[in-house]
User: Fold this.
Amino acid sequence: MTKLPKKHLFDLPEGVIYLDGNSLGPLPKGAVERAVGTLTDEWGQQLIKAWNTAGWMALPQKVGDRIAGLIGAAPGSVATGDTLSIKVYQALAAALKMRPSRRVILSDTGNFPSDLYMAQGLISTIGKDYELRTVAPEEVAGAITEDVAVVMLTEVDYRSGRRHDMAEMTRLAHDKGAVMLWDLAHSAGAVPVDLTGSNAEFAVGCSYKYLNGGPGAPAFIYARPDIVLEVEPALSGWLGHDAPFAMEPGYRPAMTTERLRVGTPPIVQLSILDAALDVWDDVDMAELRAASVALCETFIAEVEQRCPMLTLASPREAAVRGSQVSFGFEDGYAVVQALIDRGVIGDFRAPNIMRFGFTPLYIDEGDVIRAAEILQEVMESGAWQDPKYQVRSRVT
Ligand SMILES: *Cc1c(COP(=O)(O)O)cnc(C)c1O
Assistant:
């Protein structure tokens, strides 16, 4: 019996086909009641007692365990909090400490800029002769040399949707003695992930994309259970301390993945995320993946047939593609604005990529065909050439 789609569990505006859940997931209905309860009953009535009485103190770990279940990680191996950029920094810093004689962070040119920026910032903080080396995504395998301390990759490319082979790449990194760090921003809730099976040391990700945790929802970080005690936290905050309320003057990291926590957890966002994760309770990731592949294939076929002026910018082969499809078009920004005006919400990534995320929880075949029809109308009528669609907003 299929458990998909679950459109009725989301509060989506009438008439909108939402193809941007890869960037900001929509509002799960259960999150509203939970947020109100957290604000009015927990914060409002229980005040500071709520840290104990409403289970606030346990919430980061509870949510971490729920995310662990979606990415093939063991309970207790995932900590939550902060933002993904910060989690990248922490994982990278820990990985470099594990390979003190090596100086290279290897990544690819398709990685999300913030991951690369965080590596640059970390290197300038350390101030030694460290180097961030980026190569084309297809060239990573051949570029893992014996001077590489850590291979840092995002499994699914945010622009093209191209997908690395996690197990194989991790094996190659380990063969050369490097630590492996995966960014699962476009994987968690999008594709089946077998983190334990990959044997990678670290993984990070965010929860506001496919996990629908809401804007600014907390990030997550995984450390392989057998290396946790080797992890030296670069951001040694009190909530990563072994005994935060002992108020000791010296830092002593927790004996678990909790050492990768930093400061006070964002309880309102964590509550919302906890409620958003209810949607996933009975979702089989293999079933979700099959539905996602079918939606992506339909979209590619429909758009290629209807809009010959657009070029597929994602891999054609489903096995090496995540849960999004991108098309290249020079005036892609204007086309996306015209689509949004007509109820089809995708987004644009410079320089010329129109991105469409396919999330089987609330998108079905009919939505995909309707979206392709509207795209055809916009292209054939030239509606996108209207000057109002040329004005760039801050967020594209
Ligand atoms: C979305 C995304 C980010 C965003 O990081 P934040 O700190 O949450 O803003 C970082 N890296 C990747 C790969 C992403 O896809």
The chain has a mean pLDDT of 97. Residues 83-85, 112, 114-115, 154, 158, 183, 185-186, 206, 219 surround pyridoxal-5'-phosphate (CB under 6 Å). The longest strand covers residues 148-154. The two ends are 39 Å apart (CA to CA).
